[in-house]
Amino acid sequence: MTSGPIAARWFRVIATFEAVSWTALLVAMFLKWVVHAPHEGGVPVVGMIHGIGFVVYLLSTVWAAVTLRWSLPTTLVGLAAGVPPFGTVVFERRMLRRGALPAGTARRPAAPARG
Fold first, then answer.
1. Which InterPro entries does this one have (predicted)?
2. Which of 22, 51, 84, 97 has the most CB atoms within 10 Å of its CB?
3. Crossing angle for the helix pair 87-98 and 72-80, to the nearest 10 degrees
4. Is residue 63 part of a domain?
5. DSSP secondary-structure letter at 32?
6. Range of the domain at 64
7. Is residue 107 part of a domain?
């Protein structure tokens, strides 16, 4: 197995994790600033998790870009996608539609319901 599918799958997982951690951080900030929850709404813990996820996303983007031979502009857009909430998922979906992520890294569709 070549490293292309591995880098692509890792990139997809980390892009999703980064978006989920963004969501958790937004919820924690809401709890801290709007609800005035105790313990700062979990912002310190969730913020650290999101920060680590962000750095790992940047590293996985560079790895995928080098391995899958993305252009420099595409790579820069991928790196910038980590800044706005949910940008990583939007970028990942765009790359999947463009065929820039190898086949076999897509999520498998749910099995049909038996009835």
1. DUF3817_TM (IPR023845)
2. 22
3. 150
4. yes
5. I
6. 2-98
7. no
